[in-house]
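Appendix C reproduces, verbatim, an entry submitted by the partner laboratory led by Prof. M.T., so that reviewers can inspect both the input and the predicted structure.
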Amino acid sequence: MARVPIIAANWKMHKTIPEAVSFTLEILQALNFSGAEVVLCPPFTALWPVTRAASGTPLQVAAQDVYWADQGAFTGEVSPLMLRDAGCTYVLVGHSERRHLFGETDENVNRKVKAVLRHGLKAILCVGETLAERDAGGTNRVVERQLNLALKGLGMGEAAGLIVAYEPVWAIGTGRNAAPEDAQAVNFFIRELIRNRYNSEVADQVRIQYGGSVTPENAGLLLAQPDIDGALVGGASLKVDSFKLIVQAA
């Protein structure tokens, strides 16, 4: 089946509110949005202004993280209810920086995915191995563990609507990206894991992105792979010109 490519701009801890709104307005002018879904992932402070600027357009907005409770005494956290209220459609869950810098566990990722889905939002679930794990030949083992634990308790309908982002940790922000055939091999492996856990219909619906030093120069080759359905873009998403070229490659 034909899967619509999804390109997401993860700005991480960049952009003030005026910068975020300016980028949003510029990208709306620069793209026609035919043939690809485009998602901006601003910092929490800019979510509402960006969703307002994108209102009535095909441009979607994602939060970079979420907490699993709806409300409560969780200082500094943001609930899925709040994200939906701010106009988000998507939420990044389990990004490697959350896992490795802030100690997020596979169990926490599962709780977040369930909370996101419970409130009618869509999860972009990130999985990927470190350089040490890759060098030890453990890529598939790590990805399988992360994916299986993240999907725990999810039914077929819930799983079919997920976006999975394969982001090898060693390629994020390093300028090193997985070779297209290597990224394709892992994305194919992820799809087969989903096929074995659920069925072929679910596996064929799930969109699987690649992330990790995606640039205008390598996007075309990566996105041409049969099981790479989009990109989760970091540094190259901070400038309209480079991000536009990656979207156009899709």
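The domain at 6-249 is CATH 3.20.20.70 (TIM Barrel). Additional entries are available on request from the coordinating office.
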